[in-house]
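Work package 3, deliverable 3.1, input record:
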Amino acid sequence: MAAKHGSELSMQWQHWMAAAQNGNVVAYRSVLTGLQGWLVRYFARRAPPSLIDDLVQETMVAIHNKRHTYLPDQPLLPWVAAIARYKWIDGLRKTTRAAEVELQDTIESDSSAESAAHADGLERLLATLPSSQSAVIRLTKIDGLSIEEAASRTGQSSSLVKVNIHRGLKRMSQLIETMDRKLQAELP
Amino acid sequence: MTAPSLIDTLVSEAAPVKRFDAARLLRGLVPGFLVAAILVTFVGGLKESLASIASNRGLWYLCALSLALTTGSLALTVRLARPGARKPRWALPLIILGALAFVIPPAIMMVEDGAGPFIHTFEFGGPRCFSLVLLASVLPALLMVRWVRQGAATQPLLLAGTTALASASMGNFAMILTCGMSDMRHILMSHGPAMLVVGGVVAAVTHVLTRHW
């Protein structure tokens, strides 16, 4: 019974995705909402809980950007699963790389060059981010460009720019918190 | 950004899309291949008369081989360029055999003769055909790379291999008329190195352009 229901649901998503490729907004919202739940369950079996939200969102952005590669006569879920798996492996690779980045133990606090130190600290934080995130943060938050301008400069879609800014800022704040905790621990 | 707000953002950009399928590739590639074939025939001229080309049975076999290599690698490229397709088991053997076919025979010839392979390249009119294969491969390779870049490869290394093989074999196929020779020593020693150059460049470019999306 459950299998039959699952297969009907899958067929329904397949029709919705085909309609979404033709610009049907209602069908697109329905399929994305359905797939979001499916992706949460997919990643819950594979990734640590802290990464699930990021992986689901990255996969949804990838589904959006590559929706033209879906062929309506083919089942939808193997297509989604292949994208999710690729993003999961990509996520694992990034996590491993991030673990290799060494953070500076001390932060310079020379008052005469305070602003230079801030700029240097900001640059160091940005350097720890993937280039797709640091580039859009630089363009929008430092150079003051709009989302659309940053999108055309970087070749990313507007939605991806928004997601990358959000992700990058979140990661930067996590790094600052980690550094802060380290400094607190070193204080006598 | 929460999932519902991400969905709102994505839905706001739900414009109709052009489907990424084999027909779209062929619509660009078939005219591109014909232009490349006409261009090299115009630049290189016909080395043999059309009558002698038509009566050359070896050349027909070579045409059939080139066509098989081209269609096989194209079919694999189409399959590998989109997610969700079953992994083709014969992709890797085809790439390896395709590459080895142009490495092993020259090596054997070199060992047997005790001379460098480039002697054969020059003896059999190699530089002319070497340059023409390079010229003939440019347009098909550009069209192939442009198409695969729009896809979403979940096995970018394999895709780079099949794209390279398809581009190189199409370049070779496009200049068979202007070459008109079926001597395998000539094919292996002048067309082969050019195909390896084309294949190497296309594989590297394709891999760089398709591994992150």
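Chain B touches chain A at residues 1, 3, 6-7, 9-11, 13-21, 81-84, 150-152, 154, 212-213 (CB under 8 Å).
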